[in-house]
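Posting for a labmate who doesn't have an account.
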Amino acid sequence: MKTLLMALTIILSLSSYAQDEGLQSEALPAINFPDEVSIKAGDTKIIPLARFFFLDRITLEVKNGLFCGKDAVRISFDGFNSQNLVLEDSFSGWRNKIVVVGSNARNIEIYNNSNCKMKIRNITILPRRFGTRQGHGPVYFPSTEAAAQVSFLLESILFLDQLVGDSDRVQYLSPAKKVIGKAMAVLNTSPETSQAALKSIQEVVAFLKSAEPFLDKLSTIETTFEIGNEIQSVKVSLERMIR
C-alpha cells in the first residue's frame, strides 16, 4: 500500500479528534486523468483509484453530443453519493464542472443516462489523506510510517461505518475509533521508536487481533472484501514494527 509521508505534526487528542477546531487542512497532490473519453447513452465510465481516498472534490470538462439539447448524467462514488451533472446543449462546447464529494471512495462512476453520447476530459480528483464523512472533523496528515498505517485504518473504519450493520458498528467500529484515535494522538507527538509509540501500536494490533471475526466477515462480502484485505495488510505491517 502506497503511503504519503508529510512532515506536518498535529497535536491530536481524543477531544480534538471529534471536533474541527482550528486544525490546518491541506490537500494531497491532485490525481489527473487528462485523456478524452466518450460515453455512449446508457453506458457507464468507471474510474478506479489506486486505493480508498477521502475525496474533497472533482473537476472535469464535459461536452454534449452533436445536436443534443440540455440534459444530465449521474456521477457516483462506489455506488453512493449520486449527483446529477448537468450537460449544456451541444452548441455550448466544452464546459468546466466541479463536483463536491466529501466522502471516501475507491471508484468513480459516471453513468450517461441521457439520450446522447457525451465526452469527458481533464478529470482532476482532489483527495485528502484523511477526512471524516461529509467533511466533519479534522483533516489529518501522518508524519511517520506508523502514523500513516494507523491513519489508513481510521480512514477505513469511517468508510465501513457506512456499510456495516448496527451490531458490528457497536461491537467493532466504535471501539476501533477510540483505540485508533488514541494511537494517532501518540504517534504524532512521540518519536516512532519511543516506548509510548510502540505501546500504542501494540494496542492497535491487539484490537485488530480481537476483531478477526469481523475482518474475516469483511473478506466474504463483495462491497467490503478489498478494504478488509487492506486492513489485514496493515495489521501485518504494524506487527513487524513491534517485533
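Reply:
Got it, the C-alpha cells are right above this. Strands lie at 31-33, 37-39, 44-64, 71-77, 80-87, 95-111, 118-128.
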